[in-house]
Specification:
By secondary structure, the chain is an alpha/beta fold. The protein has two domains: about 290 residues, no CATH class; about 120 residues, no CATH class. It is about 60% helix and about 5% strand. The protein is built from 25 helices and five strands. It has a five-stranded mixed beta sheet. β1, α22 and β2 form a beta-alpha-beta unit. It is globular.
Length: about 500
């Protein structure tokens, strides 16, 4: 218990200490915007993250530390439950330390534990579902099955990838002796509870033409980088820390071969099924990342006795894992000031590991997405302030993507910017937001495109930031007036689900 408490506190400190670094991430701004428009569903995600954002804003405010508090707590809880899972596999203190250090300092978990996104809560929900099923199978208590249903349902309304995870687990369970649990009334209760929780968002998706499927289809076709099996599994090792690979690989082997892990063999099968499915679908490599805590737990328990045979190994390996974890941590989350990080990149540069097809800039995309928003808002504010008062009163800002639109709504409101409209994902459903369309400040579009809808298109500003990705940088700001037709007439053309 003491070890788990230390691990939880240390993990929380690791994340909250740098929570104010760099800036709001693109998706964080978007989810804050979604929190201001609560609904049963959204074009590109289920509703839970908007609810979590709403709670964070109401309780703590909208500072970076405030919105990243709950993700840091989720990261700590994931580490603690991983340690508890080690005990399920028969591991002792050394095994718990190995597993918890491995998860706490894995690059993927460092990256997501520091941001208000769906990915921050996904590992805890996946791990929680597995842990609760194992306990429910052993005890067959109604309360445990009910809790499993709640956690599974929350996972489904957090991110739709939970469907793939639960589906893989169910198939795997059906292939092992654990299948007997599927016939118990408690399991039916868990399924019913999860179904009730996720039903409203599925109804919303159906009523809106299943936009999530359009997002996935278009992203797979035009945005995501697809790698082959060798690259896929090699990058899994990089995401989980190469030095920690022996732990989770030992865990996978133990799940299939160790007598002590026979009751949990279904999880090893689920890993094989899910990783194969994601490979076949050309999914992003990090989609598999939430599945690893159980593998770390099983592997640490398996390695513990082997390490004890080698003098000092039970101390040396955890210490080495800790040191190397911190050594590569600056590539995962904002541990270093930007100028220092740029120098660090000369030694270790991960920009060659790509998940999207955007050209890389000075820093990796996951950092670039945290940068440039105040510069963008300042550029738009200068353009807006230069408008005559009569135009300023009815101006609206048209942006190319939800990141820009959310920055305008979340950060721009504090400097007097008008509301934003965009055809990108859920912003399309927000519509024109009662804009007259007679005065539009547009960013992310070329003059020729804007000229099809406006008789007067004038360059009034320019946006540049040294750290932003090239695809989102060096953008001209245009003032568009004298519309050729009402804004409602051309708004349907703006829809872009990706």
């Amino acid at each position: 218990m003491a070890l788990s408490a230390v691990a939880a506190i240390a993990t929380f400190v690791i994340h909250i200490a740098v929570a104010g670094a760099y800036g709001y991430q693109r998706d964080e701004l978007y989810f804050i915007s979604c929190a201001r428009h609560l609904a049963w569903g959204y074009v590109d995600q289920p509703p839970l993250i908007a609810v979590i954002a709403k709670i964070a804003l109401a309780l703590f405010g909208d500072s970076l530390y405030a919105i990243r508090l709950l993700p840091a707590i989720a990261a700590s809880a994931t580490v603690v439950v991983t340690g508890r899972m080690v005990r399920r596999f028969g591991g002792g203190l050394v095994a718990q330390a190995l597993a918890m250090i491995g998860i706490a300092l894995a690059p993927f978990y460092l990256a997501v534990g520091n941001l208000l996104t769906m990915n921050a809560f996904e590992p805890l929900l996946w791990l929680g579902a597995a842990y609760l099923f194992i306990k429910a199978e052993a005890s067959d208590r109604v309360a445990m099955w009910a809790t499993l249903g709640v956690v599974s349902g929350l996972g489904l309304v957090n991110k739709y990838s939970m469907f793939f995870y639960l589906g893989s687990c169910l198939v795997a369970i059906a292939l092992t002796p654990s299948r007997r649990a599927l016939a118990r009334p408690g399991f039916a209760l868990a399924v019913a509870i999860a179904a009730v929780i996720v039903a409203p968002t599925l109804v919303w998706q159906a009523q809106n033409g299943w936009p999530q499927l359009a997002v996935l289809r278009d992203a797979a076709a035009t945005k995501n980088v697809v790698v082959g099996p060798l690259g896929f599994y090699a990058q899994q090792m990089l995401m989980m820390n190469p030095l920690a690979a022996p732990i989770w690989i030992a865990g996978l082997v133990a799940l299939f071969r160790a007598p002590r892990a026979r009751a949990f063999r279904w999880y090893g099968i689920a890993f094989v099924l899910l990783s194969g499915l994601y490979l076949a679908l050309g999914a992003k490599i990090y989609y598999l990342a939430p599945i690893y805590p159980v593998l770390f737990a099983a592997g640490a328990a398996s390695l513990e006795s082997q390490l004890a045979r080698v003098r000092f190994a039970t101390v040396a390996y955890p210490v080495l894992l800790l040191v190397f974890g911190f050594a590569i941590a600056p590539e995962a989350y904002p541990l270093l000031p930007l100028p220092t990080f740029v120098r660090y990149e000369r030694v270790l540069d991960v920009r060659g590991i790509k998940m999207e097809k955007h050209p890389e800039g000075r820093v990796p995309q996951h950092f670039a997405d945290m940068l440039g928003w105040t510069t963008l808002v300042a550029a738009l504010a200068r353009a807006n302030d230069a408008l005559p008062p009569s135009q300023r009163r009815e101006a609206v800002i048209l942006t190319h993507d939800y990141g820009q639109a959310s920055a305008v709504d979340v950060l721009g409101a504090k400097v007097g910017l008008p509301r934003a409209i965009s055809g990108h994902n859920n912003y399309y459903l927000y519509g024109t937001r009662e804009a007259s369309g007679r005065v539009v400040l547009a960013i992310g579009y070329d003059a020729a495109t804007l000229g099809r809808e406006f008789a007067a298109v004038e360059r009034v500003g320019f946006y540049h930031d040294d750290y932003v990705l090239p695809d989102f940088n060096d953008l001209v700001i245009y003032k568009c007036t004298h519309p050729r037709q009402p804004i409602a007439a051309w708004w349907p053309q703006m829809r872009r689900y990706i």
